Amino acid sequence: MAHDLTDRAGTLLRTLVALHIRDGSPVGSQTLRQEAGLSVSPATVRNAMSDLEERGFLHSPHTSAGRVPTDLGYRFFVDSLLQVTDNLDSSAFDVLRQELNPDRNTADLVQAASTMLSSITSQAGVVTVPRPTRQPLRQVQFLPLSGDRVLVILVINQREVQNRIIHTRRVFSDKELRAAAAQINERFAGRALAEVQEQVDRELLAAQSTIDDYLAATLDLAQRALADEENPSEYLIVGESRLFEGASPEELQRLKELFAMLESKQDLLHLLERCSEADGVKIFIGEEAGSQILGDYSLITAPYGDGARTLGVLGVIGPTRMAYDRVIPIVDVTSRMLSAALAG
């Protein structure tokens, strides 16, 4: 078990992972002994490395005399040995604060978050786009057009305005449409669109069974106004090209497979949906994500919301050999700042 490593073994493992993250090369016993700062013999270091390899924390690539961390080694490094700082570089914090401005709309904020994650971490930044039905209805307006056509104006989450044209079962007057909008706003404003849709569907059935024509007509308007708002989940990803930097020929082949997965979207979306249920930062190292395609890469995510509910997930995709001590707090702070902007 990982937790029964001795202090010496833990120090050696932490040092080896840090060296490999920094240099990208297998780490030999002599280098490890010098960098770890332990007063032990070379033979002791070699024995400790062999023990760590037998236990699955390290492996020897090809014929190299050095070792590199396995996914288990990185996992133990992240969970038990990593010392994460809460303090971001002041320039990075200032850029995030400037870009994640509460005055911007949701679409711009999501785009800015993915761009900033990639720029600051030098990895690929990914952010899921909030589903409309997870956001609260603020106001609805109906404007009569010709015949049975009505213009619907939906105000969502205080800042998003959506316009759409619906066809009604009969022609409504301007007075009727204003009265219907007032009733819908009074009853449903502030509630999530999905919740409103469910309630309207239930009440519409009840109104039809009691032959309440006015209520049925009003609810029918609401149902048509909100129909088809559940768009397929999407995500924005920025900086995929950064993953090519410093990649070996073997890694380039894995990158092609990774990009194929990113293009299909479904696998990554399923994983990101799982992350939306997490409380705070979640880290998948290599194949922990359940996909062999992510074998050489890690995914670090955190959920974001508007203060009342979770709206999506943001994160970073990069090689397992990434600077976790820097990337983790960046993901955490970005999620908090995006949430604050959306709540504002």
Kindly report how far apart the N and C termini lie: 46 Å
Helix fraction? 40-55%
What about the largest sheet?
A: 5 strands, antiparallel
Number of strand segments: 10
* Poorly predicted parts: none
Mean pLDDT over the full residue set = 83
Strand line-up in the sheet with most strands: 7-3-10-9-8
The rough form would be described as elongated
Order of helices and strands: HHHEEHHHEEEEHHHEHHEEEH
Share of residues in strands: 15-25%
The rounded Rg comes to 27 Å
Characterize the structure shown.
This protein has 344 residues and is an alpha+beta fold. The protein is built from 12 helices and 10 strands. The strands form 3 sheets. It has a 5-stranded antiparallel beta sheet, sandwiched between helices. The chain has a 3-stranded antiparallel beta sheet with strand order 4-5-6. A two-stranded antiparallel sheet has the order 1-2. A hairpin with a 4-residue loop joins strand 9 and strand 10 (310-319). Helix 1 packs across helix 4 (71-81), helix 2 (29-36) packs across helix 3 and helix 6 (106-121) packs antiparallel against helix 12. It is elongated and about 90 Å long. The model has no long low-confidence stretch (mean pLDDT 83).
Task: Describe the structure using short key phrases.
344 residues; 18% strand
Brief rundown of the structure:
By secondary structure, this protein is α+β, with helices and mostly antiparallel strands.
Question: How is the topology of this model organized?
Answer:
Layout: H1 7-23, H2 29-36, H3 42-54, E1 58-59, E2 68-69, H4 71-81, H5 90-99, H6 106-121, E3 124-129, E4 137-144, E5 149-156, E6 160-167, H7 174-188, H8 193-209, H9 213-226, E7 234-238, H10 249-264, H11 266-275, E8 282-285, E9 297-305, E10 310-319, H12 324-343
Antiparallel strand pairs: 1-2, 3-7, 3-10, 4-5, 5-6, 8-9, 9-10
